[in-house]
Amino acid sequence: MKNPANCPPIPATPAPNPPPILSHCDIAQILATCIDQTALALAASHAASQANILLAMDAVRMAHAQNRPLDLMEAVARTQGHQEEHLAGIIREIGDKLAATLNPIPPIIPFAGKLIAPSAFYESFEHIHKLAKSLLTPVIFVEDTDAIGVASVNPIAASLLAANIQDAVARRFDIRPFLTIARIEYEAWTFLTRKHFEL
User: Fold this and answer.
1) Cα separation of 37 and 199, whole Å?
2) Which of 70, 83, 125, 144 has the greatest number of C-beta atoms within 10 Å?
3) Neighbours of 127 (CB within 10 A)
4) What is the pLDDT of residues 109-159, one digit of tens each?
5) Which of 157, 165, 145 has its CA nearest to residue 182?
6) Is 25 helix (H, G, I), strand (E, B) or coil?
7) Residue 47 pLDDT more than 80?
8) What backbone phi and psi angles, to 5 degrees, belong to 156?
9) Domain 112-197 fold
10) Is the dihedral of CA 143, 145, 149, 152 positive or negative?
11) What backbone torsions phi and psi does residue 141 show, to the nearest 5 degrees?
12) Is the pLDDT of residue 93 over 90?
């Protein structure tokens, strides 16, 4: 995994009592992990050629450097030459292949686009909101920090956000919430990411 620019190297073992707030470098490192893990899953599941994956990875890194979050799955679909009207179906197919690499397989929630953004949670965990924006993974519900749901077209991004939410809530409240990891359709995802992250 490449180390993001201007960030200290990732330690081999986690430091005791990690800080409660994710720094810019933490978010950059989690994003880099997401890109790398998604690329490996794309290759392993034969969802894209190595050439397409490498082109898409460059596109994602360039977009993030310009403060324009972009998911690797969408970038792969675009580098494969798919037109806008076909993106939803292609991204669903790619998502199915990526989800099959995870255990358990994250389900698709068709009504996620109708759920209300958890503004109070985002305000309370501003660093999680920044990470969610970087990973393009909205928090779709919060029940008193005991049960939290995240969703994305990219199940790997959703899994990474869920793990970081569990850690953040555990540090603050000394409880480990139940996390639901789900997938959403492309149209609902684009709607929610605009709504949650003002994109």
Assistant:
1) 24
2) 125
3) 17
4) 988 778 888 999 999 999 999 999 999 999 999 998 889 999 999 999 999
5) 157
6) helix
7) yes
8) -70, -40
9) GMP Synthetase; Chain A, domain 3 (3.30.300)
10) positive
11) -160, 150
12) yes
- Compute, in degrees rounded to 10, the torsion defined by CA atoms 183, 191, 147, 25: 90
pTM equals 0.87
- Angle, helices 186-197 vs 126-135, to 10°: value is 140
The pair of three-digit structure tokens given for residue 41, joined into one six-digit string: 């899953």
**CA dist., res. 192 & res. 138, Å (int):** 7
In degrees rounded to 5, what are phi and psi of residue 69? -55, 140
DSSP annotation of 66 = T
Residues 6+ apart with CB under 8 A from 118: 139, 140, 141, 142
Residue in the block written with tokens 């209300």: 116
Q: Domains of the chain: which residue ranges?
A: 24-99, 112-197
Residue 179 tokens, joined:
């996390």
Q: 94 is written with which tokens?
A: 């790619």
3-class SS of residue 134 = helix
- Say if CB 148 and CB 72 are below 8 A apart: no
